[in-house]
Amino acid sequence: MSGGSGTAGLLAQLRDDLGYRRIGQGIRRLESVRPALEALEPGGKDSGVLVGLLAQWVDAGFDGLEALRRLVAGFPVSVRTDLPLLDYLHLRMAEGMLAMSEEDLGRAAEHFRFVQSLEGEVSDAELLAIANFWTGRCLRKTGRYDDAENYIVRGEELALSCGYLQMAAIMQTARSWLAFQRGKLHDALAILRRAEEALGGTDDFLSRGNIQSAYGRIARRQGRYQVALEAFERAIGEYRQAGGEPLQYARALMNLAFVQRLLALEMQKEWDRLSTSRRSAKEEAAQTGRERRLAIERLRRDAGDHLEEAMVLYAGHHNHRGIAGVHINRGFLHLDSGDLECAAAESAEAYRHGSEKSDYLVMARARILQCIVENAALEEQIGDSARHQEAAEAFAREAVEFAGQTQNRRLTARASVWQGLTYCGGPYRDLEAARRCCDKAIALLQPDSSERQYVWEELETLKARVLHASPVDPLLRAWSAGIVQEKSFQELTEEFARIVIPKVWEHEGRKVSRVAEKLSISPKKVRRILQRAGLAEPPAARPGE
After folding, report:
1. Do 4-224 and 247-457 have matching folds?
2. Nearest-CA neighbor of 293 among 319, 273, 264?
3. What pLDDT, on the 0 to 100 scale, is given for residue 455?
């Protein structure tokens, strides 16, 4: 770089361009000094600060990630020990940004927290604002939403203290996303509108695209799928204006595909309902059916095309979460088409990508899909029902465990719902366990009244199965109230045995000997009661009790 005063002026301009989100102007400044950046001397005045600001610009869309890596590598320990504190902190920010780009979120957060820990020692509010914001982003991506909000709010306060209303708007967008995850959709929309107003006159197309994408996700959760499609298309338009191939563009393509799949499902359900009620108008129904079938196929084909484009972008960036997300969405498309084998393969591949990075969000989502696939195989009576039941229970159990490592209540609720649905199905039902899963999901899902989406439909299915699966509860309630209908104690005992023994038999792995031992009764009596309930094992199975 040229003289110290020239460098100081450039740094001030780059910092203000970031704060006011004058993206095009800032990128032109960086392009004009790119040769000097490449030749930057690590020990020069403000060299560390320049590298830190370059990291912020790369995050904002400047094509300089490889240059940033080379610059950071040019600061060995022998040089760092002599750096001024501010230069060293900016260098740590650059290292954290590189770790974020490699999806090493734990290491990235360590760098940012170190910078925050010295807040009392430096007077660079813009640096501290970004350090807090980036820490919040790392925590949000790992599903730690409550922790993330504290950092993001602090970052917003610091940005506003600098007079950077537009930079604060980016942090407001992140806060809106956290409100969205908690099911507070009205709050999320209110925050988004403020951010949109602040960024409306800027050329920060990435952040503007993020706002439109957020609108799309809120509309999707409200069941307003056409509105969601339009919002995601607007987001894609903003990302295209930003130039390059940002990961945000790939994410918008994936969200667009997801909504197209949901629209196809909605159309299929509507057609199934109409087909049932219009059997007398066969010709009209057949014509409408052909049109609907073509529309559904077109939606699914378009969704597949968008996922393919997103996969190319994610693979080019080696982004494991995006790649896994594409596999999960492809898996659901295969599931909708009845191709359980391909759905299982896609979900397994998604899990592999998640496990490589210990990404609990991805691992939980992949396991949920694998559980759904196994339940579908059970319902369609494909292969060994016991094996499918065992696999579904294992996948559901792991999905709940992985989701529990995050603060994503909705994901944990969905994992619990599918664990409950698994307990309700197959040859070894456990309705009490299913009820516990249902209660857990209900406690976790507490959104505002505008939410309408598939998770609630799945919960309603579980509630219906739990509530209507067994006629036992009314009888037990009657007995507890002293209503015995003139039955003798012996008759009550026999009736109670007919209620309890099948449940214990299911719980004990359908082993008569275990039931007999547990209840201290004869195996003969257990078999007699099971036979009356229509649950007796065939004679060939008894030697294996």
Report:
1. yes
2. 264
3. 80
Which contiguous run of DSSP H or E holds residue 243? none
Report which of 203, 182, 180 is spatially closest to residue 190, judged by C-alpha positions. 180
Tell me the CATH number for domain 247-457.
1.25.40.10
Cβ contacts of 100 within 8 Å, gap of 6 or more: 108, 134, 137, 138
Q: In a 3-state reduction of DSSP, which class is residue 8?
A: helix
pLDDT for the residue numbered 425: 80
Query: Residue 326 CA to chain centroid, in angstroms?
Result: 12
Q: How confident is the model at residue 62 (pLDDT cuts 50, 70, 90)?
A: very high
The 10s digit of each residue's pLDDT in 316-333 is 999 999 999 999 999 999
The full set of domain ranges for the chain reads 4-224, 247-457, 473-544
One-letter identity of residue 326: V
* 62: enclosing H helix or E strand: none
Instruction: Note whether 129 and 116 are within 8 A (CB).
Output: no
Selected from 1.25.40.10, 3.30.70.20, 1.10.730.10, 3.40.50.300, the CATH number assigned to the domain covering 4-224 reads: 1.25.40.10
Classify 368 as helix, strand or coil: helix
Task: Report how far residue 220's alpha carbon sits from residue 213's, in angstroms, rounded to the nearest whole number.
Answer: 10
Tell me the pTM: 0.81
Amino acid at 233: E
Please check the confidence at residue 532 and state whether its pLDDT lies above 90.
no
Neighbour count for residue 477 (Cβ, 10 Å): 10
Give which of 371, 409, 412 is closest to 389, Cα–Cα. 371
Rg of the Cα trace of the chain?
A: 29
pLDDT tens-digit series, residues 287-313: 566 788 899 999 999 999 999 999 999
Q: What is the DSSP letter of 74?
A: T
CB 465 within 8 A of CB 421: yes
